[in-house]
Amino acid sequence: MAALLAFVISVYSHSGxxxxxxxxxxxxxxxxxxxxxxxxxxxxxxxxxxxxxxHLYTERGFFMExxxxxxxxxxxxxxxxxxxxxxxxxxxxxxxxxxxxxLQEGKRKSILQVFAxxxxxxxVVILIVAAVISALTGGIEGTIVILAVLILxxxxxxxxxxxxxxxxxxxxxxAAPNAYVMRDGQKTEVPASALVPGDILLLEAGDVAxxxxxxxxxxxxxxxxxxxxxxxxxxxxxxxxxxxxDLPLGDRLNMVYSSSLVSYGRAVVLVTATGMQTEIGKxxxxxxxxxxxxTPLQRSLDDFSKKLSIIIMIVCAIVFxxxxxxxxxxxxxxxxxxxxxxxxxxxALSSIVTIGLAIGTQKMAKQNAIxxxxxxxxxxxxxxxxxxxxxxTLTQNRMTVQKVYTDGSVSSIEESTQNPIAIQELATQSxxxxxxxxxxxxxxxxxxxxxxxxxxxxxxxxxTDIRNEFPRLQEIPFDSDRKLMSTLHKRNGQFEMFVKGAPxxxxxxxxxxxxxxxCLDFTESIQADISEQNAAFSAQGLRxxxxxxxxxxxxxxxxxxxxxxxxxxxxxxxxxxxRVESAAAVADCRRAGIRPVMxxxxxxxTASAIAKQIGILQDGDRAVExxxxxNMTDAQLREAVAHISxxxxxxxxxxxxxxxxxxxxxxxxxxxGDGVNDAPALKQADIGIAMGITGTEVSKDAAxxxxxxxxxxxxxxxxxNGRNVYTNIKNSIQFLLSGNAAAILVVIITSLxxxxxxxxxxQLLFINLLTDSLPALAINMEQPTxxxxxxxxxxxxxxxxxxxxxxxxxIQGILIAAATMxxxxxxxxxxxxxxxxxxxxTLCLARLFHGFxxxxxxxIFRLPSNMYSVGAFLVxxxxxxxxxxxxxxxxxxxxxxxxxITNILQIIGLAxxxxxxxxxxRIIKNK
Length: 927
Prior knowledge:
By secondary structure, this protein is of the alpha+beta class.
């Protein structure tokens, strides 16, 4: 039977059946297991064909799911191509099947559609209805003002929407414009969009890979994959198979991926995926599927709007019914309902919140945090988890020599004076066997090599002087297969060859060791000691280079045989060290009730060492790799996520899963990142934070905040500012709603007692849009207090309308309403016009005074000075005085011209009374 199956598979693999029924089997693969068997017969596939297709897809695969496992021959056979490339006829056939090598995107909304959506809010609908009623009853001025405000808000919302929609455009810009391939046995330049799976792609230094592919031939190829993995160091590529089932993207050394930059060498690559099937394409797809999270304030305001809308409609309906029942007439009843709606709806709320967020944005920009999405400002205030990238954010993004092993002992840079001769000699060798360059503060070349040059300067030497004194005569460049580099120099009258490379490789080639100026035999005991020290360095997350030398008889071209029988000289261990301020910032995070988490593409050992050093990884916490996450279900990850502080070797999909796990556990998650690979998670996170210096345009577009200094400590400052912004906005909302509550109470009371209308729609709009806006803006200028980071993050599920908030708002609203009704009743003794004028003026001035109460919960005598509040009060008072005393404005605002100085004094006294009572209570309570 096995022989028969092998024969059938062989026959099928050389026939056209594969092409005919490939799409058929694709359909089967997408189905659930329960319908899998039944679908065989629906598609007309018998058991032998099923066996063949399972073998084809799972072991070799048209989409090459585990491409790194295949030999060159297997990879070519699987995609039915050869080293001569595809024929033009086959290219056209595959082009029809796979389409353009481009990223796709969903249909975008038109400007009109986005503009129309800005009106999809119950409060807006109520205002539109009020405007129509006002127009029908002769109040055309009120109609114009209401509609102007609504249209302006809609325009602002539309502009903001389209400014934020640029992520996919940046992804597309990363695609290489052209590529060199083998077609019909000839090297041909084609548009990158014309690549298809099976093409033979030719890469050289400086090229950007235009598709994903399996490396068939590598000639010292080094690729920068930082856009995908987040790690800035070049990756040495190979062309041999890697026989492992699961490999993180960063460990797939025989693969190249679209958008990666070839920094050194060249290669012949088999294209295995194009367009949306590439890793970049998967990220684009993730970004399409990732949902931007509404900030806590957005959710609170949305919930508040719905509740307020329902309350307003119910109350307006009751007031309208009562008015009609009491014989006020349909027109007057409608005017009462319109006045009530306008009084209840805080028209300035949206603008005040937006401006408050903008003020917070300006403050943060001065502290190196640029906010793209205004709503993210206050969202920072309830962040309970910060998932941070390691490289460049928590670390300096600069490889630095940490320790040196010479003469059998370990020294730090600070201790280099203890053994200056041996360390100076090792530094000289590291400079000569080195291709890096330092131009001032600019490092050119491999980060590991430039770190060695910086080390040379740190111990008081100069790499340029050393190189000039001992110029390079011959060399064998670094090769990823042998993992060594050798150079020849004339020094001290001898031709010395210096070799550097991986410790395990170099140690096996040594026969002697230079120690304390003597050349000793390289005994097993000495080799064991060095290997043990190398392991100790690695366990600390350090990257280790070994150095050796050899005396040659003459100046001649070096050969690989020369790299034998070496004299070991030392080890240099380096790492990308933590930023100086990272440990303090992490401590501040924990003090503020925020859990810091490290997510990196680096190895677990290195990541864990850094995390322990700065306080992220503590006793009882776990560090896991991406392969471990692959084996976790979403439910298992949700359960484990609280105990994991370090994630290493992760993919974009892993990052989204981590963020979602925290969110599903009820946390507000912030995510930092700089690479293309971070973009989907940045979009998924409640607060996406991109790096301004090292970040790609894609990550910046996907994020809601950008750090101009790439510093984790800046995030902590932003959190403190975010908490202050939310406090100020909540105080502003309390100011607006307490004043509106007072107006509602007055309208309801006058309606119940069949009294004249206390306010016109224009008067209420004047209060809501002008005199109320100024104090609300001033409240948003309040400075943060010093204890913000001692508070726990606020509960994101907690709405604005809490019990304490409503209680305070109600008491303050009742006090202002009482003062306004007193003024109304005083005016009624003269005439209805005077009653309306005095009620309007008292309500307006009382709300201006009330702005001082809403600056905080303490007495104004215990609050820091805020000249903006004083200025807002003075300007608001001047505007009110203008309405009351300029005859030309009386008709527009329905002001009675008979106002006397006595009435003005009564207005001032009644308006000040609520504020006096509130402040006295706070003083008595010692607040």
